[in-house]
Write a structure and sequence with these properties.
By secondary structure, this protein is an alpha+beta fold. It has helices at residues 23-36, 48-58, 126-131, 135-141, 151-154, 209-225, and strands spanning 2-5, 11-14, 38-41, 61-62, 69-70, 73-81, 106-113, 121-125, 145-149, 177-181, 183-185, 192-194, 201-204, 229-232, 239-243, 247-251, 260-267.
Amino acid sequence: MEIQPLGGCGAIVEGLALADARGDDLDALRRELAMHGLLVFRDQALSPDDHLGFARQLGEIVVNKFFPVDGLHPEIAEVRKEKEQKTNIGGGWHADHSYDAEPALGSILVARELPSSGGDTHFANLADAYDALSDGFKQMLGSLRAVHSNHHLYGPQGIYRKTDLADQLGGESEAGEAVHPVVIRHPESGRAVLYVNPGHTIQIEGWSIPESRALLDFLYAHVTESGFTTSLEWAPGSVAIWDNRQTWHLADNDYHGERRLMHRITLAGEALSPASGPTG
């Protein structure tokens, strides 16, 4: 297994067939995922059953509340845009499941049907982004907590309910929110990580909306404009595994008139602790 770091966020892994990964290979993947936040694999022959078998070796699977599921495999969510649809899922920067009290560890995304061009996914590294902040700013952030929600996206009056994706989405009664530290201690690597995201973070706890917006917008610009991002061009056989606790991602919506289907399995995580607390 060879690891080639990508600029900004993540790494490409070569020399490993995920369908055959066992034992030491899985341990190595866990370490590399905690280190890089994103692992990209090419030319994988990964059937839905292989996808499930691999995921189960990495952790407990979370069934998505909102996305449609693969007809034969309810643990596999379909990230799907049909030819006639104009809206895509995940078209803005976000971290999956940050609105849950125990946010997801990460996701395993497999390319199934791709447009002739477009549909790239972009990733951002929130551990490196935090490291680049000044000491004084870090000290201020360390005392803050933020509110994360999905009501504005998946709730009865949410954005997606007013689009051409509405008929394929479920779970509108299961929308919810959670509060997390603005800077977390990553459970595996021990690194301090900036834990807010444009898709789901709606407010700094105890702050007004305008005050929150000013701080959050500054942080979002810092992440996206300072060299902490990378772009993944999908190809048949591509697989991406990312750690939701230390990355954002965004899917381009630039392939109107063509179908794109990805299979996603999400892995359960745990409650997150502030970076200012105990590390061990």
